[in-house]
Specification:
Layout lengths: L31 H14 L13 E6 L2 E7 L8 H9 L7 E6 L11 H8 L3 E6 L9 H7 L3 E4 L3 H7 L1 H7 L6 E8 L4 E3 L11 H12 L3 E5 H7 L16 E5 L10 H4 L6 E5 L4 H9 L3 E4 L3 H10 L4 E4 L3 H9 L5 E6 L9 E2 L16 E8 L2 E7 L4
Parallel strand pairs: 3-4, 4-5, 6-12, 6-13, 8-9, 8-12, 9-10, 10-11
Antiparallel strand pairs: 1-2, 1-3, 7-14, 13-16, 15-16
Length: about 400
């Protein structure tokens, strides 16, 4: 979320007439303050991570005469939206102010009232939001604000806002599977484990904490059976604030080899575990079910993803290993790729993170868009957009 959307100068301003039907209308020549306050709204939105799903993360800033008089964010599913939270802080100072919101104010009554009406009642004179709400039930807030005589503009940091809530936008367009994020910790030479194949940490504490934040924002966490046999993971959220709902733990396990004595199977009655098989080992599946493990038989990864979608899984975090990650990439079932690169070289015999991925000619291989890149201690995290989202 580092770039700033450009090419807005030819777009009409919201005050030049009726609200445009095109979602590509933008604030004409947004000022430095517009960008600065919207970036702050995006920062505030992150404070709701893990607590607001299936709603999007949203932040709001109320500004009067260049001074921030109110800030808010959607902090908890079913509670006040960002605009209402910011207006409560601003109080009477909201009258005549500009409201910056990272998503179009909603125009419907759900668990809370319409934010567009709250902004109108507060007497703000201008509303700037980053991205249009793709949910038809909630959309229309911009038009309602314009009808009330409020100046409205959009498009400031719109790409960043869509990236921030990529799983929400993906689901709103009618996707029949979860938004899939593949996370891999690799060495400088792209390996996930050294030649000994013994488990061990590649990345440092800051990178590992970032992974737990990713887990907290996901509806489910998946690994391949090879990772379970090698590492015996718990797949729980630890080094991050507790999410509103603990993610479902998923194992892609073609022949139902999940050990009954594994940490996942032993805790399945307390925290659900789903074992995804191909249906070829009914006896082993029955043993897992008797231990409290749910079993899903699916002929392909795509079929499994579709079934996860029908179960309400909107965001799936896949943490490897190499075979599962490569197979999902090859099947076009990955939307975001998160690479955590440690400053080490593992050398000959190490297992490449993409050893099972089909070979590509350099000039024809797809080039992924960089969504975010930042240092986490000594490690480097890069987030790539693999799909068009």
């Amino acid at each position: 979320m580092k770039g700033i959307a450009t090419d807005r100068s030819a777009s009409p301003s919201a005050s030049s007439g009726p609200w445009p039907a095109s979602p590509e209308a933008h604030v004409a020549a947004p000022s430095a303050d517009d960008v600065r306050f919207m970036r702050r709204a995006l920062e505030l939105a992150e404070r709701g991570a893990g607590r607001v799903s299936p709603n999007p993360k949203v932040g709001a800033v109320i500004v009067l005469h260049g001074e921030v008089v109110g800030e808010g964010w959607h902090a908890e599913y079913g509670q006040a939206h960002a605009e209402v939270a910011a207006l409560r802080v601003a109080g009477a100072r909201a009258r005549g102010a500009t409201a910056y919101v990272s998503l179009e104010p909603c125009n419907h009554t759900g668990k809370t009232g319409p934010c567009a009406e709250a902004l109108i009642a507060a007497g703000v004179s201008r509303v700037v939001f980053a991205a249009h709400d793709p949910n038809p039930k909630a959309a229309g807030g911009a038009a309602r604000l314009v009808a009330a005589g409020i100046e409205v503009g959009d498009g400031v940091l719109a790409a960043e806002a869509r990236d921030q809530n990529a799983p929400f936008f993906f689901a709103a367009r009618g996707a029949d599977r979860p938004f899939v994020t593949l996370k891999l910790a690799v060495s400088i030479d792209g390996a996930i484990v050294d030649a000994s194949r013994q488990p061990g940490w590649l990345t440092g504490q800051e990178a590992r904490a970032a992974v737990h934040r990713l887990r907290a924002e996901s509806d489910a966490i998946a690994v391949g059976i090879g990772t379970v046999l090698a590492d015996d993971p718990a797949l729980t959220v630890r080094d991050a604030p507790a999410p509103r709902r603990a993610p479902l733990r998923v194992v892609f396990d073609r022949t139902a080899r999940l050990p009954i004595g594994s940490r996942l199977a032993r805790s399945a009655r307390e925290l659900p575990v789903l074992d995804v098989t191909d249906g070829s080992a009914p006896g082993a599946e029955a043993v897992l079910r008797s231990a409290g493990v749910d079993v899903l038989a699916a002929p392909t990864a795509a079929a499994a993803m579709h079934e996860l979608g029908t179960r309400g899984i909107r965001h799936l975090l896949v943490e490897g290993g190499a075979t599962l990650g490569s197979s999902l990439l090859a099947a076009d079932l990955v939307d975001r790729l998160v690479i955590l690169q440690a400053p080490v070289i593992l050398g000959a015999g190490a297992l490449s993170a993409f050893a099972a991925f089909p070979s590509q000619r350099a000039e024809q291989a797809p080039r992924f868009r960089v969504v975010e890149r930042k240092a986490l201690g000594a490690d480097l995290m890069t987030v790539y957009a693999v799909s068009g989202d």
